[in-house]
């Protein structure tokens, strides 16, 4: 029943979302041709998938699916660039990158420019910060017992410091996870995929999905390639490449 309680979201926002839902119900079973980069293309701006369509003159153009479904609502932009140009650009870049890896011109033992020692230093620093806060909590409790701090002030400061400890411990665990990820060695697997790719006369959609996690297309024609292998994420120009 309408107007019986305060809405969780504004009616204007709710109505707009309903229009989006209605629009998205159409053309769900639309069949499409499989392309080399099919399933890997995403819109950087809205994070939805980018599809490939044949134009009237037989050319292949990309289009943001979110924009296609909701163009009348002014959601996102078309990202209507040439698919052929993108595919050639991606293949050229990956071949050059893999030739460099195969020729040992690119080191594969660097991740985010941080070494194991860097992470150890950062973890020790976080441990010191956590210990300092906990020591302050202990001192504050002693002050409360000695009547130097009121019960009200103790509760307020205690809650504040506990919140800080929880945040520091969360940051510590995140750093620890990153350190463990950094220690994983996928160099052998990368070299195997590099060899297979370079031996192929014509790459297949299957091997492209093994190599690439996703490709993000910006409205200004910039492309970001996110690889499936952690140690390829630091490869030169893997992010921020422009379509020519």
Key attributes of the depicted protein:
6 strands; 244 residues; alpha+beta; 7 helices; four-stranded mixed sheet
How would you concisely characterize the structure shown here?
The protein is built from 7 helices and 6 strands. It has about 240 residues and is an alpha+beta fold.
Which helices and strands appear, and what pairs or packs with what?
Blueprint lengths: L10 H14 L16 E3 L6 E5 L5 E5 H6 L12 H20 L13 H30 L5 H33 L3 H13 L5 H7 E6 L4 E6 L13 E2 L2
Parallel strand pairs: 1-4
Antiparallel strand pairs: 2-3, 4-5, 5-6
Description of the molecule:
This protein has seven helices and six strands; from the N terminus they run αβββααααααβββ. A hairpin with a 5-residue loop joins strand 2 and strand 3. With 244 residues, it is an alpha+beta fold. It has helices at residues 11-24, 65-70, 83-102, 116-145, 151-183, 187-199, 205-211, and strands at residues 41-43, 50-54, 60-64, 212-217, 222-227, 241-242.
What general form does the structure show? flat
As a percent range, the share of helical residues equals 40-55%
Radius of gyration: 26 Å
User: Termini separation (Å)?
Assistant: 55 Å
* Spatial strand arrangement across the major sheet: 1-4-5-6
Q: pLDDT below 50 for ≥5 consecutive residues: which ranges?
A: 22-31, 109-113, 234-239
Could you tell me the strand content as a percent range?
5-15%
Number of strands: 6
Mean pLDDT: 77
> What is the number of helices?
7
Structural class: alpha+beta
Give a quick account of the main beta sheet: strands, pairing sense, barrel closure: 4 strands, mixed
Helix/strand order: HEEEHHHHHHEEE
């Amino acid at each position: 029943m309408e107007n019986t309680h305060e809405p969780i979201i504004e009616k204007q926002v709710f109505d707009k979302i309903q229009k989006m839902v209605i629009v998205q119900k159409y053309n769900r079973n639309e069949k499409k041709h499989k392309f080399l980069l099919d399933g890997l293309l995403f819109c950087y701006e809205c994070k939805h998938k980018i599809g490939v369509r044949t134009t009237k003159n037989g050319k292949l153009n990309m289009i943001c699916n979110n924009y296609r479904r909701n163009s009348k609502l002014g959601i996102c932009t078309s990202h209507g660039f040439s698919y052929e140009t993108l595919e050639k650009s991606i293949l050229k870049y990956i071949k050059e990158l893999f030739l460099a890896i195969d020729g040992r011109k690119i080191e594969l033992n660097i991740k985010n420019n941080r070494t194991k020692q860097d992470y150890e230093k950062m973890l020790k620093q976080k441990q010191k910060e956590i210990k300092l806060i906990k020591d302050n909590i202990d001192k504050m409790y002693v002050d409360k017992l000695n009547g130097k701090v009121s019960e009200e002030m103790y509760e307020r400061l205690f809650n504040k410091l506990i919140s800080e400890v929880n945040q520091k411990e969360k940051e510590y665990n995140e750093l620890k996870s990153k350190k463990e990820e950094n220690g994983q060695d996928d160099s052998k697997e990368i070299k195997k995929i590099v060899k297979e790719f370079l031996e192929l006369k014509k790459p297949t959609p299957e091997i492209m999905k093994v190599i690439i996690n996703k490709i993000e297309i910006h409205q200004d024609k910039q492309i970001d390639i996110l690889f499936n292998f952690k140690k390829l994420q630091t490869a030169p120009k893997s992010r921020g490449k422009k379509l020519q």
